[in-house]
Design goal:
The chain has 498 residues and is an alpha/beta fold. It has two domains: 268 residues, Aldehyde Dehydrogenase, Chain A, domain 1 (3-Layer(aba) Sandwich), CATH 3.40.605.10; 185 residues, Aldehyde Dehydrogenase, Chain A, domain 2, CATH 3.40.309. It is built from 13 helices and 24 strands. A hairpin with a 2-residue loop joins strand 2 and strand 3. Helix 1 packs across helix 6, helix 3 packs parallel to helix 4 and helix 8 packs across helix 9. The protein is globular, with a radius of gyration of 24 Å. The protein binds adenosine-5'-diphosphate. Adenosine-5'-diphosphate binds next to helix 6 and helix 7.
Length: 498
C-alpha cells in the first residue's frame, strides 16, 4: 500500500504542520491497517494562528457583497458534483458507512451549497414604519465575525457544510476542527471552496483531538460564536465555556429516537423504515431509530419479522457495493455497544439478535458489530433511555397511540420521532404531542432535508437550528437602523405621544 499522505492544518490559505510537529493517523474503521492519512495534532498555538488568520480575512470578506459570496458557494456545489464519487469513496474509507450513504453525505453538501447560494440574494431583513414622521426604520442582518466550528465524525462532509456554508454567505470567517476520526472529508470540502475562489484565511482547518484542539477554539476571545455537533457530554462542557464569555453557541447533540408503529400501520413499510432507521450508518446517527414502540396487537409479528431482516443484513467493508452495513467508527464505539448489551441483559431485556462484536474472517480487520435487537424492553430501562450510537434497537410494546406518545416522550432527549399509521387523526395528534424537533409520518426517523430546520428539544440542543433559515439566524446578528430625514430632533415615545 502506498504510504499515506500527510496533511497540515489549513491556516491563511497555507498548509502548515502543527507547531509542536505532532501528528496522528486516520485509520479506516473497516481495515485498521489502511492509513487514510496523517494529520496535524494541534494545540492552542495552532488554534491561535488559525483564529488570527480568520480575523484578518474577516476585515475584507465581510465587505464582499453577499451575492458574490454566494457565487463561490454555487461553484463549490458544482465542483462537488464533479468529484462526488471520489469524495464518497474516501469518506467510506475514513468513516466506514456504505458507499450509497457517503454519496448521500456529499450530496447533502451539494444541496446545502445550492440552498445557501440562493440566500446570497435574500438574507432578508425587515422594513417597518417608524412611529415618527419623516423617519425610516429597517433591520439588517450583520455577520458575527470569526466563527468556531467543532464537528463529529458521522457526517464528515454534510455537517461541516451545514456549518460553513451559511456562515460564509452571511459574511463570517471560520475556523473548523473536524472530528479526529474523519478529518479528510473536511479537507475535500474546503479545497473545493478554495478552488471555487474563496480567499485565503476565510476558512481555516485545525485538526486534532477535542481537549487539545477543540477546547482552545471555544475559549479563544476572538472567536465570536461556536457551533458544535457531538455528544451531550462534550456539548455541556462546550456550552458552559462559551457561556462564560457570553458567546452564542449552537449545540446539536444526542438522541434516543422512537419510531411508533400502530396496529393500523402498513407493517411492510414500517419494517423497511425500522431496518433503515436502526441499522443505516450502523446506528451512528443522532437521528437513528433506537426504539421501536409497537402496538401490542402487532408486536409479535413485527418483532419476528425485524429479527429476520436484521439477521440477513450483509455487514462488511462499505466500499463493496453489496454491503448493507459498515463498521462502527472505532474501538470505543464497539466497547460502548458491547457495554450496553450487558446493561440491557442485566436489566432483563431479551437479546433477540446479534449483541456481539464480529471479529472473524472479513470482519477481523475492523470494528464490526452485529445488528442487534432487544425485545421485552421496558420504557424506563437504561437501554431505552440512553444513547448507544451503534446498531442496537429496542422493541417496546405499547397499547394505542396515547401510550405510545407517553413512552416516546419519556426520555431526556428530543431530536427525531416517527409514526406509522394510516389514521390521519392519530398522525396529527402525534405531530402535536411528540416532544421532538423532527416528526416523520410513515417514514423513519432519519432523512432530514437541508432546507428545513434541524435540531431538537430537551437534552438534544439548546434551541438553535441548523439547516433552513435557522442557520442564518445563528450566523448573523440583527442591526436595527433608523434614518431620520426630518432635519429636527424627534424623540421616540415622547414627540409622537401628543
Ligand atoms: P462523538 O460521540 O461524535 O465522538 P464527541 O462529543 O466526543 O462526539 O466529539 C465531537 C467533537 O467534539 C469532536 O470533534 C471532538 O474532537 C470534539 N471535542 C471533544 N472533546 C472536546 C472538548 N473538551 N472541547 C471541545 N471539543 C471537544
Amino acid at each position: 500500500m502506498a504510504s499515506a499522505k500527510t496533511y497540515g492544518n489549513l491556516i491563511g490559505g497555507k498548509f502548515v504542520p502543527a507547531k509542536s510537529g505532532k501528528t496522528f493517523e486516520n485509520l479506516s474503521p473497516a481495515d485498521t491497517s489502511d492509513v487514510v492519512g496523517v494529520f496535524a495534532s494541534s494545540d492552542d498555538a495552532d488554534v491561535d494562528a488559525a483564529v488570527k488568520a480568520a480575523a484578518k480575512a474577516y476585515e475584507t470578506w465581510r465587505l464582499v457583497p453577499a451575492p458574490k459570496r454566494a457565487e463561490i458557494l454555487y461553484r463549490t456545489g458544482e465542483l462537488l458534483v464533479k468529484r462526488k464519487e471520489e469524495f464518497a469513496r474516501d469518506m467510506t474509507r475514513e468513516m466506514g458507512k456504505v458507499l450509497s450513504e457517503t454519496r448521500g453525505d456529499v450530496q447533502e453538501a451539494i444541496d446545502t451549497a445550492y440552498y445557501m447560494a440562493g440566500e446570497g440574494r435574500r438574507l432578508f431583513g425587515q422594513t417597518t414604519p417608524s412611529e415618527l414622521q419623516n423617519k425610516f426604520a429597517m433591520s439588517v442582518r450583520m455577520p458575527v465575525g470569526v466563527c468556531g466550528m467543532i464537528a463529529p465524525w458521522n457526517f464528515p462532509m454534510a455537517i461541516p457544510s451545514w456549518k460553513l456554508f451559511p456562515a460564509l454567505v452571511c459574511g463570517n470567517t471560520c475556523v473548523i476542527k473536524p472530528a479526529e476520526d474523519t478529518p479528510l472529508s473536511t479537507f475535500h470540502l474546503v479545497e473545493m471552496l478554495m478552488e471555487a475562489g474563496l480567499p485565503d484565511g476565510v476558512v481555516n482547518i485545525v485538526t486534532g483531538f477535542g481537549p487539545e484542539a477543540g477546547a482552545p477554539l471555544v475559549e479563544h476571545p476572538k472567536v465570536r460564536a461556536i457551533s458544535f455537533t457531538g455528544s451531550s457530554e462534550v456539548g455541556r462542557i462546550v456550552g458552559q465555556k462559551a457561556a462564560g464569555n457570553f458567546k452564542p453557541c449552537s449545540l446539536e447533540m444526542g438522541g434516543k429516537n422512537a419510531m411508533i408503529v400502530l396496529d393500523d400501520a402498513n407493517l411492510d413499510l414500517a419494517l423497511d423504515g425500522a431496518v433503515w432507521g436502526a441499522f443505516g450508518t450502523s446506528g451512528q446517527r443522532c437521528t437513528a431509530t433506537s426504539r421501536v414502540i409497537v402496538d401490542k396487537r402487532v408486536a409479535a409479528e413485527f418483532t419476528a419479522r425485524i429479527v429476520e431482516r436484521a439477521k440477513k443484513l450483509r455487514v462488511g467493508n462499505g466500499l463493496e457495493e453489496n454491503i448493507e452495513m459498515g463498521p462502527q467508527i472505532n474501538k470505543q464505539q464497539i466497547e460502548t455497544s458491547t457495554r450496553y448489551v450487558k446493561v440491557a441483559q442485566d436489566e432483563g431485556a431479551a437479546l433477540l439478535q446479534g449483541g456481539v462484536a464480529l471479529a472473524e474472517g472479513v470482519h477481523s480487520k475492523g470494528h464490526f458489530f452485529a445488528p442487534t435487537i432487544f425485545g421485552k424492553v421496558q420504557a424506563k430501562m437504561r437501554i431505552a433511555q440512553e444513547e448507544v450510537f451503534g446498531p442496537v434497537l429496542s422493541v417496546i410494546e405499547c397499547d394505542g397511540v396515547e401510550d405510545a406518545i407517553r413512552i416516546a416522550n419519556g426520555i431526556e432527549y428530543g431530536l427525531s420521532t416517527a409514526l406509522y399509521s394510516r389514521d390521519v387523526n392519530k398522525a396529527f395528534r402525534a405531530i402535536r404531542d411528540l416532544e421532538a424537533g423532527i416528526t416523520y409520518v410513515n417514514a423513519p426517523t432519519i432523512g432530514a432535508e437541508v432546507h428545513l430546520p434541524f435540531g431538537g428539544v430537551k437534552q438534544t440542543g439548546n434551541g438553535h437550528r441548523e439547516g433552513g433559515t435557522g442557520a442564518l439566524d445563528f450566523y448573523t446578528t440583527w442591526k436595527s437602523v433608523y434614518i431620520d430625514y426630518s432635519d429636527k430632533l424627534q424623540r421616540a415615545q415622547i414627540d409622537n405621544a401628543k
